[in-house]
Amino acid sequence: MRIVLLGAPGSGKxxxxxxxxxxxxxxxxxxxxxxxxxxxxxxxxxxxxxxxxESGKLVSDDLMIGLISERLSxxxxxNGFILxxxxxxxxxxxxxxxxxxxxRIPLDSALLMDIDFEILMKRxxxxxxxxxxxxxxxxxxxxxxxxxxxxxxxxELLKRKDDNEEIIRNRLKVYRDQTEPLVDxxxxxxxxxxxxxxxxxxxxxxxxxxxx
Length: 212
Ligand code: AMP
Known about the structure:
The protein has 212 residues and is α/β, with parallel strands linked by helices. The chain is built from 10 helices and 8 strands. It is globular.
């Protein structure tokens, strides 16, 4: 099974990909995770990527295609893979198509996790972590009891640095401008499948399984 997972930041791609990886024993390849590791390791590639990532913009297509072609050449992808966060531009999608043709491993489908933009904004802007328990909460979606429980334990609701509203708006704009055109690209390739990503994690996963 070889799948591209498409969807805006916050649509839940990473979570669903992790589950699918375990259930189907295939690789989960997240370019965001690969870049964050390079940043943590302080490689020269990581240093280049860091500034771009912090601004919410995209790392260059050439760097990304190099990274993914190296990753796909590893043996652990033989059983299949889920690409999460790649491709993100039409150039990356076309280069990926060419690469997979050369490797003689065609893509099965591109799965779009469809979600309303207002819900996305609330998911990302409202995200908090309890400083006491580490529990992930959301000021819009968590119950009052859950939010109060953190405060009652003497904890604070902390916001992640990259959950800054301006950066989030920028990331969503970059998605709309550069990544959304891939929906039409994969439609024209007859690979596109759409799932509703607005339900609970379990509901979304069940419709994902039913679709692939
Ligand atoms: P993600 O965790 O997938 O949201 O990725 C975090 C950041 O890494 C993005 O905002 C981009 O700056 C960068 N990034 C990840 N994947 C790509 C890609 N395929 N092309 C360009 N930049 C990427």
